[in-house]
Design brief:
Layout: H1 12-19, H2 26-34, H3 43-53, H4 58-62, H5 66-69, H6 77-95, H7 108-119, E1 126-132, E2 138-146, H8 156-165, E3 170-176, H9 186-200, E4 205-212, E5 217-219, H10 220-223
Parallel strand pairs: 3-4
Antiparallel strand pairs: 1-2, 1-3, 4-5
Helix pairs in contact: 2-3, 8-9
């Protein structure tokens, strides 16, 4: 049966898009790499034959030469190289060191010391976002905006989108005051409220909003402003 004749839920690409990669079998994932089958069999059937050639083992398949893969009808060198490259990436992913720093963020002073080297001496305002997982480990730090002497425009939607993409459980907003006065203004308070409300829609916490100066800082969490 041709792939086009299968219902959408049985087609590997459509199934992956709608249900996620984890719902696909090994053969279906390989089928996505192969892209097409032959006149006599569809791409999933071709993938199953390739997997069968490796005894059903992805580890064995990863060590198989391109010439050996090409023994399966419908698999040329281009497809064989694609499969080999994907399996090699899988190996490297498994041995790669975690990019998550195994240090839990415990309070605003720790955040201030961590971010100060990026913001010290700036003569314009910048906003940075720190993304945290459930253990309060830092999983990302990104600049959200760069502005003028007295303000910087922050896109709340972009911050929420990034938090969702990183599977973050918590967010810390950090921006500087070049004036040297860390006390928040009305605009800072309103921005904090907007971001907190937007994040809460997706059950993500605004852990803190810290206003940074070269020698001091203001923590919304410490002062219980807009975060209660």
């Amino acid at each position: 049966m041709k792939i086009k004749e299968l219902c959408p839920d049985e087609r590997p690409r459509e199934k992956m898009m709608s249900k996620g990669a984890e719902t696909l079998s090994n053969a279906e994932l390989i089928a996505i790499l192969l892209r097409t089958g032959t006149g006599g069999q569809n791409v999933v059937e071709t993938a199953r034959m390739l997997l069968s050639l490796a005894g059903g083992s992805l580890m064995t398949l990863s060590g198989m030469s391109a010439d050996r893969m090409c023994a399966i009808g419908g698999i040329g060198r281009s497809k064989a190289v694609t499969v080999a490259a994907a399996l090699e990436l899988g190996k490297r992913c498994g041995t790669e060191n975690s990019t998550i720093e195994k240090v839990s963020v415990t309070g605003p002073d720790m955040i201030y010391r961590r971010i100060l080297p990026r913001m010290k001496g700036l003569r314009h305002e910048e906003c940075w976002i720190m993304y945290l997982n459930r253990a309060n480990y830092v999983i990302g730090i990104e600049k959200a905006s760069s502005g003028g002497l007295e303000a910087t425009v922050v896109d709340v939607k972009m911050i929420v989108r990034a938090a969702l993409e990183k599977l973050a459980s918590g967010v810390v907003m950090i921006h500087n005051h070049p004036s040297g006065n860390p006390n928040p203004g009305t605009a800072d308070i309103k921005m904090t409220e907007r971001l907190k409300k937007a994040l809460e829609t997706f059950e993500i916490s605004l852990v803190d909003h810290i206003v940074v100066c070269d020698d001091r800082y203001y923590s919304f969490a410490d002062e219980r402003v807009s975060l209660a």
